């Protein structure tokens, strides 16, 4: 799939919805391990990815990198994720039908922000947590059109945004604001992809919402869903992309709860069932050559519960200098109109508690227009990899500058329960990071 940071010479190609209908990047480009079976099970694959790194910010006084989910801990060497999966590609089972599956789990600091409520979401509560990330059956059916339809049924990653949660599903160690804050991370439901022709796919799905389940484990009893189109190989096989929307009530319909120290929960009561959230995503990737590509990602979010309109535009440039080195550049402008979207979740369980309607500590900023510039390198050391019998190793150092473009000062400070809005920080945050990823 084109969501992976490549290990051999292809420029980074952010997510498009493939004919399998998934934006996961869950298969590392390194050679997978196949179980030694016969028949259908012969193509079963096992993958393992381990990512660790540090996000260095010497100027922070809060110990946090504001505006970051997964890299929120400043100046701390972190095991971000150990991600393992067992999968089988969709394989022919006769009469034009096919079946496959994916089961994937993650352990590490990233799991704090990738739970699914009702699926072991409170199993661990420290810096390193556990999260089931995928558990779906994949079906192909020869229905409606010549090329048929594909279905994913179960738990799967959200299909919006340019940067995926798996380490190899993005070009940088850090995330852009849009992929961190306003696209669904995990969804449980049914997603269909109808292959209209060799270039266009229609997308339709129904799900429980962002990182929640159905029934008592859900935070809202109204359905949500995807609708959109993806395309590949346009303009002489140079242009890929998608236009996708996700719609439905998303706010928690539980009664609000207040903790002894004054923090409140996200519950809005039954009125939440009628408060819509509209999320739209446009992604275009143009391949200038075999080694150079550029990508544009535009995202919009309207949340009736917070009366907030947030939107951002991110541009990418990826250049494969040689098979061992890829240069990646990223620029983003993101607007949070109320200050309620971009937040620092202060405790180890803040994000999960927000989803579960439990009180949680957080810090936010005034309404802010954020700008961010990132330059990074993906380095695949051949002198090491040629001696590794299983898997591949890569390093991703990066330099990043975040800045408030409208005069607010949200960075490098904390706030308090009495006033969780950061007003006296700095108007920029310069930080440098590096991760290492080993995968097979």
Can you tell me about this structure?
The relative contact order is 0.16. Helices cover 5% and strands 45% of the residues. Strands 2-3-4-5-6-7-8-9-10-11-12-13-14-17-18-19 form a 16-stranded antiparallel β-barrel. The chain is mainly β and 440 residues long. A hairpin with a 4-residue loop joins strand 11 and strand 12 (292-303).
What's a quick, concise take on this entry?
With 440 residues, the protein is mainly β. It is built from four helices and 19 strands.
User: What class, by secondary structure content?
Assistant: mainly beta
Number of strands: 19
Strand order of the largest sheet: 2-3-4-5-6-7-8-9-10-11-12-13-14-17-18-19
Rg on CA atoms, Å: 21 Å
Distance between the termini: 15 Å
How would you sum up the major sheet? 16 strands, antiparallel, barrel
Total helices: the number is: 4
- What fraction of residues sit in β-strands? over 45%
């Amino acid at each position: 799939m084109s969501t992976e940071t490549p290990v051999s010479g292809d420029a980074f190609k952010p997510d498009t919805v493939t004919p399998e209908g998934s934006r996961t990047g869950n298969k590392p480009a390194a050679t997978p391990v196949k179980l030694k079976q016969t028949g259908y099970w012969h193509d079963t694959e096992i993958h393992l990815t381990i990512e660790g790194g540090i996000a260095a910010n010497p100027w922070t006084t809060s110990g946090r990198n504001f505006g970051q989910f997964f890299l929120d801990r400043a100046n701390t060497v972190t095991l971000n994720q150990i991600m393992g999966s067992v999968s089988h590609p969709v394989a022919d089972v006769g009469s034009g039908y096919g079946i496959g599956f994916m089961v994937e789990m993650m352990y590490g600091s990233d799991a704090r922000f990738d739970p699914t409520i009702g699926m072991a979401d409170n199993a661990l509560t420290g810096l390193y947590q556990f999260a089931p990330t995928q558990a779906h059956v994949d079906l192909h059916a020869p229905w409606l059109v010549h090329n048929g339809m594909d279905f994913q049924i179960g738990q799967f990653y959200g299909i919006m945004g340019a940067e995926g949660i798996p380490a190899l599903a993005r070009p940088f160690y850090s995330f852009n604001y849009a992929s961190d804050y306003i696209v669904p991370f995990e969804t449980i439901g049914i997603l269909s992809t109808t292959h209209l022709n060799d270039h266009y796919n229609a997308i339709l799905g129904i799900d429980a919402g962002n990182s929640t389940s159905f029934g008592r484990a859900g935070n809202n009893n109204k359905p949500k869903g995807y609708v959109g189109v993806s395309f590949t190989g346009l303009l002489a096989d140079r242009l890929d992309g998608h236009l996708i929307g996700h719609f439905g009530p998303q706010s928690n319909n539980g009664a609000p709860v207040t903790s002894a120290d004054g923090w409140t929960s996200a519950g809005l009561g039954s009125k939440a069932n009628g408060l819509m959230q509209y999320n739209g995503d446009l992604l275009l990737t143009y391949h200038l050559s075999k080694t150079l590509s550029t990508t544009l990602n535009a995202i919009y979010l309207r949340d009736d519960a917070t009366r907030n309109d947030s939107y951002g535009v991110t541009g990418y440039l990826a250049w494969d200098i040689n098979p061992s080195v890829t240069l990646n550049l990223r620029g983003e402008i993101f607007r949070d109109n109320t200050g309620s979207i971009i937040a620092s979740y202060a405790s180890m369980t803040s994000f999960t508690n927000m989803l579960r309607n439990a009180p949680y500590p957080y810090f936010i900023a005034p309404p802010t227009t954020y700008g961010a510039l990132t330059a990074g390198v993906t380095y695949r050391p051949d002198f090491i990899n040629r001696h590794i019998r299983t898997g591949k190793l890569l390093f991703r150092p990066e330099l990043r500058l975040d800045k408030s473009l409208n005069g607010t000062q949200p960075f490098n400070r904390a706030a308090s329960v009495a006033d969780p809005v950061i007003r006296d920080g700095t108007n920029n945050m310069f930080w440098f990071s590096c991760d290492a990823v080993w995968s097979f």
